[in-house]
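Dear Dr. V.,

Thank you for agreeing to look over these. As mentioned in my earlier message, I'm a first-year student in the group and I'm still getting used to reading structure tokens, so any feedback on how I've presented them would be very welcome. I ran two proteins. I've put each sequence directly above its structure. The first is here:
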Amino acid sequence: MTYNKQKILIICSFLFIPLLLLATFTYYPAIKLIYYSFTNWDGYSPEKPWVGLANYREVFANSDIFKVFEHNFAYFVMGIVQNIVAIYFAIVLNSKLKGKYFFRILLFLPYIMNGVAVAFMFGFVFDTTNGSLNLLLSNLGLTHLSETSWLGREGLVNYSLASTGLWRFMGYNMVIYIASLQAIPKDIYEAATIDGANSMQTLWRITLPNMKPVIQLNLFLTVTGALEVFDLPFVLTKGGPAGASQTYVMRVIDTAFAYNNYGLASAMSIILLMFVVLVLGFQQLVLNRGGDK
């Protein structure tokens, strides 16, 4: 056997197990999900009646299903704020600041915490009567805010939940931005300083343009995360009050496990996937067009 054939055989051997695992736990379930979306399966019966596009027609005909996407908007807004704050801390902690490694670790620690544990912890923070947030507001003299029901008001609950995600994931985005900043050649900054550029000009003309691919990546994660939120509202509010914090994924889970309509839930999952692809495609189109200009 020649050297090239041996090399190809070794490469294929190393790729076989990862590809097998990928096909078993990703592609096969995805294909089965598409198949179930065309059936009226209840989740446990051996019969899976074929209904064609009936599930998809039911999803698009029911406006209440898509209305829950309004609740996801708060997570998108807080995700944008999260990225802005992460860029700020990344720039600050990438400078010659004493103790910057300590602050990096401090800001990154929330990300490694378990999501359910974080949700329970913030349940005590947002508690109306004994919560630490209302206690802090009361001590600051903001009595008109100290009795706010952060998880009980329809217009406020989603932003309260989304702020939890901001606290948890900001450090993760910050670390990614720091890595991006460290990849920018120092010579560019030195040349800009010699030309008389100030800090704001350096930020807008050098730093942010060079960080654009990483910003696009984090925006991708922000959009997908905002559309697929589940754990925080499920643990803290169960979708309440009166369904005001129910997200699309929670509606899918309820359809499958509470109402035993796995066919309809599968169709809803496929529609969510297509919606995510469309939104991200539009996002890339806008960002790339802005870059061409």
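The second protein is here, in the same arrangement:
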Amino acid sequence: MSDPVALRSRAEQLAAPFPPLLAGARHLAASVVLGSHGRRRPGPGDEFWQYRQAVQGDEARHVDWRRSGRSDLHFIRQKEWQAAQSVTLWVDPSASMRFASDRKLPQKGHRASEMALALGILLIHAGERVGLMGHDLPARTGEVQLMRLAEAMERPDSDGEYGTPEAREMPSRSRAVFVSDFLGDLSPARTALTEAADRGVSGVLLQVLDPQEEAFPFDGRTIFESMGGGIRHETLKARDLRDRYLQRLAERKAELASLAQVAGWQYSCHHTDQPATSALLWAYSALERVI
């Protein structure tokens, strides 16, 4: 018979990574009060959508006689379609996302994972199927899937400087969410969005930046080194780089917004010193707009 003490010890070691991320994501999701996840179009469901005038061929059982009694016409009461859909998440696992300029701030990757997992919680509770790109996790529903998502996000396996989304992992006519700092080469993201649009996939680009990356508060002699150690630049006059840096950052944001617009996606930028709740609510609402 196996030792129950040893078994519990192994189980606690296995579960140890989950509470911080999962608990934080659940708390974040709980702070966003949302109703049912309708499709904003008529179909099978429980929520009232609209009345329409009855036409030849409509069955009498579908007529709303109370509404029709106030008119000389007959009206059909339509309900909002509430069918489940698939949503694929991509959270950049690269070294760049491990950056935090202050100990009081979360790493970009932790904030990205927390928001993505919280979004997954909201979607799954609304009856959606949620999957995770890059971890062999196709879209599924249920609490077990949430645990799989949490485990995968807690243990990113990429050592690359910057991450790359893969459009082939997104089912056709589905939705997707890309969460990254998008500071690397944009060619892979551009390719993924083009393929997504060709396959009828709509979605959301959420850029996550540290406030220091937005402000560039450097002066004098400064050594810039990437989180992965593969990129290094030393300058004696960091302040002289500030205007060019801010211009290129603004151009990067504009390009991301343009790519999203062309593909029929939504784009927003979130900073890690800001509340995650507002970004989560925006992402959830944005997914509604791209249906």
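From my reading of the second output: The chain has two domains: 48-79, 86-289. Strands lie at 48-53, 75-79, 86-91, 129-132, 137-140, 175-180, 202-209, 222-225, 232-235, 266-271. Does that match how you would interpret it?

Kind regards,
E.
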